[in-house]
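User: quick one, fold this
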Amino acid sequence: MMKKYTLLTLLTLTATTWLLNTAMAAPASDLEKQYIDKITEWIPGMSDPDIPTRKDPQQALERLCHEAGTPGKETERAALCAAMMTQVGPDVPKPARIWLLRKVEPLGRDEVVPKLTELLHDKDADIRETARRALVNNPSPKAAASLRAELAQADKPEWQIAMINGLAFRRDGQAVSAIARLANSQDDAVATAAVCALGDIRTPEAIKAVTALLEKPRPTLHTRIAEAAVKCGEELNAKGSADEAAAIYERLYDKSRPESIRIAGLQGIAAARGTKALPMLFDVLNGDDARMRMVAARNIQEIPGDEVTQKLLAALGSAQPETAELIIDVLGQRGPEAREAVARLARDAEEPAVKDAAVLALAQLGDTSAMDTLLHIARSSENKTHRSVALRGYVRLAREQGSPEERLQTLTAAMKLANNVDDKKLIVSAIGDIASVKALDALMPLVDGDLHGEAFSAAVSVAKRIAGRNQAAALAAVEKLSKAARGDAETNAVDALRDAMTSYCVSWLVSGPYKQKGKEGLDTFDVVFPPEEPDGKAKEWKPLDVTNADQPGRFDLGKGNNCCAYVRTTVISETERKVQLAFGSDDAIKVWLNGQLIHANKVNRACTCDQDKVEATLKDGENTLLIKIVQGGGDWGFCCAIRGTDGKPLTGIRYQAK
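Assistant:
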């Protein structure tokens, strides 16, 4: 489609193009006159009360500025800026003046400074501020000189602050003496702006001025002076003057300062002095101030080297519990170097306190590389406490590594090394996280012994986790647990698990996701994918694991958009019977029983169990149940229950994922 232009737009673009094409050939004075003539033409449009009408002439001027400002066109740039400055007087309407000043701001140099300086005293506050901004962003030294002169004669606090902020933005070192004097102004706003400016400028003279202000800071400026001092310290440190930076930070760390300032001081000392700051940092780490201990710990963490690691371990041996936690956390962040040093000290240290600390740290911080050392200590140490601590660390790592079978083997071996009930309970709890029949077999003999409570809870957990792949083993365990239950809480837990596994189907195969190009949201609801075709072929069927052990019948299908998945199971009934099937789905759902569609609900919704209910007949023996769950976006899941027509649980029904 051809773009529509107004007559003014076409005329403006044509004139601008002509100016750009002839500019190179014209002398500077002639070129300035041509620019003035054209800007004069555009001023009525740029000043029109109707804001949209201003667009075309404003864009024409902007295009002219862009072209004149390109490298190699210094003559054009200077001529255009000079031309614009002739059109910003009080006789020109304000909207045009503002637009011209904004275009001068990134483009102007020496040639615009006199007029901008004059406009700093314009009657209109917006014009004054726009001129000030243009001077602040003008790289010419004359612009900085103009701002300094204006600061010297400014008599109103708000205008003094405006000049101070502009000079601070430029980091103008020649303004430091004037700004430093204003840092002692009786007007807090002016003094605050001056202090902040000194911290932004950060020349040697500015740093000296900030340091002087630290001597007897005015209470209302205390925080701002400290912030400026921190910036000055950072500047010195970055330039290699670490001792000077540290001297500033040490003054900030003085106990008379507010806590926030002392924290900044301590952090600065650590940054400036590095390892030389360790004695002070460790003194703080072992002190009484909780916040400062944390700051010290974090700064120690940043200092590299085995020496620091050993100092941390030595401090850990005599630390109070709160400090010990900090040290252990710091060690954990120091990487392989720290862990190797910890492991070495845990094995070989002769000083009891250091060895104690190293074993504790290794148990809490170690990665898989520490497992062999921890196992060695658990097996061979003559210190019972060391054996127990190492074993606990070993178990913590073991429960997170390897396949379910490997974890079970590791934990079973650890059980043989456990010398107290608490360690055994920890191992039993870890076995409860493993979804395998063998884990259940390992736990069941413990249910009748001294570890009954932990073993019972762990066995219930494993039964929930394996219910999807091996419902028969899970139900068999439930029956044994029911007989072994002690008290109402355990009985209720077993009954709830039995109901969940018999009311809700937990044994499924899944296939998908399936998509079709161009189909979005619920569009796939009516698309026939392979699993629902007469031969029932699918690209892949795989077991669907229990998503949440606390809700074994509710399954999460993962993430996806604009797709669907299929789940299927075999329902084995001892007799032919009428039943109630209850479904929940996120989003839409279709259900087939023995190849017949028995339910369909094309809906966007969150999954709540028993949202839809339908009656059907199960035949004696095997029944095939197939469900399609359509996903628009967000969460994606389903649940399915089979009960009597009265809604109560049934007996004589089991499920097999095949």
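User: anything notable?
Assistant: DSSP finds 29 helices and eleven strands in the chain.
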